[in-house]
Write a structure and sequence with these properties.
The structure is a homodimer. In chain A, strand 8, helix 2 and strand 9 form a beta-alpha-beta unit. Chain A is built from eleven helices and eleven strands.
Chain lengths: 364, 364
């Protein structure tokens, strides 16, 4: 891997709500591997965001109360500098000449954003999946920058099982002849490899239990069966096919490779020599750790370990282990379980009658 | 998929031990997806078999007491007729012109073998993984042919999660340009696709817990690191690489595709309309079902379901749920847990002093 630095990198971000006079109501969101900074709709961009039910006026992360910032990760391809960006030195995309990316780099990118907004201390930093690890890196690198840390379906370092799965996803992309050792043009992506990587992703983002309940052994209708001896026969195959098709064309392959590797490389123990020492450097006074019991990628034990490790320095730590069926993806889909917990943490006022009518209402 | 029939198919098998005068000591073994009929070493072939510690004189399946037969599955590539065999009609390998293969076909192949040996009733039929499903198919198709059924890390039908994983494995092979729509020559296999499919197999054959214990986050030594930006950094990646390299060159890609699909298609409910009705057709008087709690591919709940379903017709059913860390592969590696159970079922005499000195001895 090549270590190096970037000349004038850009970090794209979006904001919602207003910074208050005391400048103490800002929340910074780091994303998972693939989303953009568009966490929720806004006046400037009315399209649905990737965390629409969670972020907005009257929602758990209430933009009528908080000033919310979401960054597109450095290394991604939605406005921030990444492998698909033009290298000013060559006038061509960086491709695999992009330097090794770490989650610490992404955290630094987030810190540059809040500094440029004139902020020195956040109400909280929050992230799910890769975003949770980045939020953790942020809290270690800038211990005074956030008073609270929220980690969702994440961990202090990924497991060898997750590394194995991601390593194979990267191999699928790299073995696609269209990848051309990373030197493809942006409109000729290694689509086949990306689709396969996405399928493996979809399998590991959900849970065997959910697949059983949702698909069972249902076959697709005969007219939908492909004229292919090993094509789509089962509903579960059709589901993966549809999701893979949706993903490709929206994400750059080299960006995927760099961000995926950055997740594997991150280890809190690199900050201080051990997991506990690394976690002792986290500056937040309060931490909320939420995990899902059916998560294959970030197993609940890792998240319990993270929560336990954060209980030093008189820090207040809340840990929730959710019995959701949706595995790693639960924070995007199982809103009924996640909303009350985040709402409680952010003192939202959702329980006022009628407040949630525009989103999916749920019983408290 | 093409339905059809084979002209003069061959089923390869090996035997150990002697048939007794009453002809009631024969055990038929069906294999998982990739093994040959060489379950154990013998005078004719002294090389180690795939179930060496389990089959032999003084071992749990005691060949000094039983006449043991193991068949290479129809559709495989170790002597039995399969997609890599020469189609007499064209003088070229069948390739994807091989008809759709089912586990029932493989069971029929096994039945042809025992008939040709002059056997009408077996002491038992036994199989692990795909072999367990084939043994089940055998017991349904030929209810009088085996007095006992042993199913290890198997099920009455696979889960949608397992279908999704296998579907993706097949896609990896089919998307390798060397696959050439199945029309490759035997010495120019789609090696890259096969290696990736094997890696995904290896990941799902073991368990996250075992990977954690075995590899943790160990990096390979610097001299073993490849000069490749996304190459092997972690021990777990090196392990998968080594296993994938060992596998390719030994197994035919089209055979893999057909056998893999046969597993997905099998459903006991196709024999009688429901799971329970299908299982009620099993003819064995005794059944032993063994499952492993960390098995991702054949989750323990499925095996409990199989054991429960077999408890009709006054059948004696034994069910063991093993806490082994080794997941689906445990029956090949965690001998200390499997030996005593099989030994007990087959009334072996392993607990005589000194009996096991030549194999790995273990405490009873």
């Amino acid at each position: 891997m090549q270590h190096g630095s970037l000349k004038d990198p850009v970090v794209a971000y979006e904001t919602w709500g207003e910074l208050n006079f005391q400048k103490d109501n800002a929340i910074l969101i780091f994303t998972g591997l693939s989303p953009s900074a568009h966490a929720a709709s806004s006046d400037l961009d009315s399209s649905h965001g990737w965390w629409e039910p969670m972020v907005g006026p009257g929602r758990p992360i209430d933009t009528s109360k908080y000033f919310v910032i979401c960054v597109n990760s450095l290394g991604s391809c939605f406005g921030s500098t990444g492998p698909s960006s033009i290298d000013p030195a060559t006038d061509k995309p960086y491709g695999v000449n992009f330097p090794v990316l770490t989650l610490e780099d992404i955290a630094r990118g987030g810190h540059e954003v809040i500094s440029s907004l004139g902020l020195t201390q956040l109400h909280s930093v929050i992230g799910a999946s890769m975003g949770g690890m980045t939020a953790l890196a942020f809290s270690i690198l800038y211990p005074a920058a956030a008073k609270a840390l929220v980690s969702i379906s994440s961990s202090a370092r990924v497991s060898p099982y997750a590394i194995a799965l991601r390593s194979l996803q990267r191999e699928m992309i790299r073995s696609d002849p269209m990848w051309r050792e990373g030197d493809y043009s942006n409109d000729q992506q290694p689509v086949v490899g990306m689709q396969q990587a996405r399928k493996l992703g979809m399998i590991t983002y959900r849970s065997p239990e959910e697949f059983q309940k949702r698909f069972g052994r249902e076959f697709v209708s005969e007219e939908r069966q492909q004229n292919d001896i090993f094509g789509v026969d089962f509903e579960v195959e059709s589901y993966l096919e549809a999701h893979a098709a949706k993903f490709t064309g929206t994400f750059d392959a080299n960006c995927y490779l760099y961000l995926s590797r950055a997740m594997d490389l991150f280890d809190v123990a690199d900050h201080g020599g051990s997991l506990d020492q690394g976690l002792s450097r986290v500056g937040a006074d309060r931490a909320l750790v939420i995990g899902v019991e059916t998560d294959v990628l970030f197993p609940i034990d890792q998240q319990r370990e993270l929560a336990e490790g954060l209980k030093s320095n008189q820090r207040e730590v809340l840990f929730h282990s959710l019995p959701s069926l949706q595995g790693h993806d639960a924070f995007l889909v199982d809103m009924d379980r996640f909303r009350p917990i985040l709402c409680d943490f952010f003192n939202c006022t959702m329980n006022q009658p009628g407040q949630l009518k525009s989103v999916n209402p749920f019983p408290f």
